[in-house]
Write a structure and sequence with these properties.
Two copies of one chain form a homodimer.
Chain A: E1 10-18, E2 21-23, H1 25-37, H2 40-46, H3 51-65, E3 70-72, E4 82-84, H4 86-115
Antiparallel strand pairs in A: 1-2, 3-4
Helix pairs in contact in A: 1-2, 2-3
Chain lengths: 122, 122
């Protein structure tokens, strides 16, 4: 999750909503992956985190928001299946919106800062 | 440095300028503290980081930008004194500007996200 965090240029946004209640790139990517894979295990694998770690992040989110952001099926054919709840989708959409607005608003300063860097040695 | 990172509500911004060249709240706070205290040791103490850790962050910044962001005096009465160079001041100012622009641009989404949180239990 953090291994490639510094490879892609741009802004990383971490939002502290309340003391000790935070939302950042890791949780957002996990919600994204659950939405795409329909599975916590698959989302965890994609993010190279353990199932336990993925569950722990989801439990934190569910507790922080006082309502599930991820809904899981407990048995039957879809055992282990997971989807975002309406709140989960809303939280993810708001975070992605904040990322876009941030990137747009800082663009000028960002390039000014990049121009201070030395040329990359060949 | 990270101990209180999640206590104050708002946005935390981490800027990746180039693969493995990043600027975030920690380095910015260190530059701020050096500007205010005129000393790497004092800045480190204020941020509850070791002198070694403070120096390591500064060396990383100086190397990344290919020019010193922090100038130190090597001897005499002001031994250990440190100031921001023109580039150091410029980098810090650009980072603070990006923080302000971010906070402004995300304000609406930020409050929408906060409203999804449950009331704090008494």
């Amino acid at each position: 999750m953090t291994r490639h965090a510094n490879r892609t240029t741009g802004a990383r946004l971490r939002i502290v909503l309340r003391p000790d209640v935070a939302l950042g790139p890791g949780k957002a990517a996990l919600l994204d992956s659950i939405q795409e894979t329909g599975s916590i295990a698959a989302a965890g694998r994609r993010m190279k985190m353990s199932y336990k770690r993925a569950w722990s992040l989801i439990e934190t989110l569910n507790r922080d928001f006082g309502t599930p952001l991820v809904a899981t099926s407990k048995g039957g054919k879809s055992f282990g299946g997971a989807t975002l709840t309406e709140t989960g989708s809303r939280v993810l959409a708001l975070y992605r919106s904040m990322e876009r607005r941030t990137q747009e608003s800082i663009q000028e300063d960002f390039h000014a800062l990049q121009r201070l860097l030395p040329d990359i040695p060949k």
